[in-house]
Design goal:
Blueprint lengths: L1 H16 L2 H4 L34 H13 L12 E2 L7 E2 L2 E2 H12 L9 E9 L5 E8 L3 H12 L7 E3 L2 E13 L6
Parallel strand pairs: 1-7
Antiparallel strand pairs: 2-3, 4-5, 4-7, 6-7
Helix pairs in contact: 4-5
Length: 186
C-alpha cells in the first residue's frame, strides 16, 4: 500500500512540475456561449386573499401585505415557556445594561472563600417576566466553594426590568463571567 501511494505521489509531483502541461493551449469553444442565470425564487403567495379595501383602509391593507411578505410575527402570541437569549429590548438593571451591571452587582455581593484560586467562573441565570433572577447555575466553574459563593451572590441580585419581545415581557437567559480574585474577606 505504501509503495503504491509513494508511486502515485511521485507521479503527481512530477506532473505538477512538468512544463508539458503549461504548454498546452486551452481548447476553443465551438458554438454559442452559454449564459447561466441565477435561479430566482418566487415569493410565497398568501393563502388568504387581502382584505377588501375601502377608502381609508388602503394603507392598512398594504401594511398587512408587507408584514406577510417579511414574515413578521407581530400580533402572534409568543410561546409561554420559552427562554430567550436575545430579545428586542434586553433586561436592564438600575437603568444600565444588564450584563455589565449584573457583573458589578455580583462582585458587590460576592464573598470569596480564603485561599480561593485566581480564575474566572461563568454563571448562567434567567431573568423572568417579573424581573426576578431564577435558575442560577454554574456554566464553567473553578472550585466547588468558589462556585457556590458565586451562585449565592447571583441569587441576591435585585430585580431587573424584564426583557420584551414583540411588546410582551419574556424570560431571558444570561451567562456572566465573574473574575476571581476580588477583595477577599478574612
Amino acid at each position: 500500500m505504501n509503495r503504491k501511494y509513494a508511486y502515485c505521489a511521485s507521479l503527481v509531483v512530477a506532473l505538477m512540475g512538468s512544463s508539458v502541461l503549461a504548454q498546452i493551449p486551452p481548447r476553443k469553444r465551438v458554438g454559442k456561449p452559454v449564459v447561466v442565470r441565477p435561479r430566482v425564487r418566487e415569493k410565497p403567495k398568501p393563502s388568504v386573499e387581502p382584505w377588501e379595501c375601502h377608502i381609508g383602509e388602503v394603507e392598512f391593507a398594504r401594511e398587512q401585505m408587507r408584514l406577510f411578505e417579511l414574515g413578521d410575527t407581530l400580533g402572534q402570541p409568543l410561546e409561554a415557556n420559552r427562554v430567550w437569549t436575545y430579545v428586542e429590548q434586553m433586561p436592564t438593571l438600575n437603568g444600565q445594561n444588564a450584563l455589565t451591571s449584573s457583573m458589578a452587582a455580583i462582585h458587590q455581593y460576592l464573598v470569596v472563600p480564603p485561599a480561593a484560586p485566581d480564575g474566572r467562573v461563568f454563571v448562567r441565570f434567567e431573568v423572568d417576566k417579573e424581573g426576578r433572577v431564577r435558575h442560577a447555575q454554574i456554566a464553567r466553574g473553578l472550585r466547588a466553594d468558589v462556585d457556590s459563593a458565586v451562585v449565592a451572590a447571583t441569587r441576591q441580585l435585585p430585580r431587573f426590568v424584564p426583557g420584551q419581545q414583540a411588546g410582551q415581557a419574556v424570560d431571558v437567559s444570561f451567562t456572566v463571567p465573574v473574575t476571581i480574585p476580588v477583595k477577599r474577606q478574612p
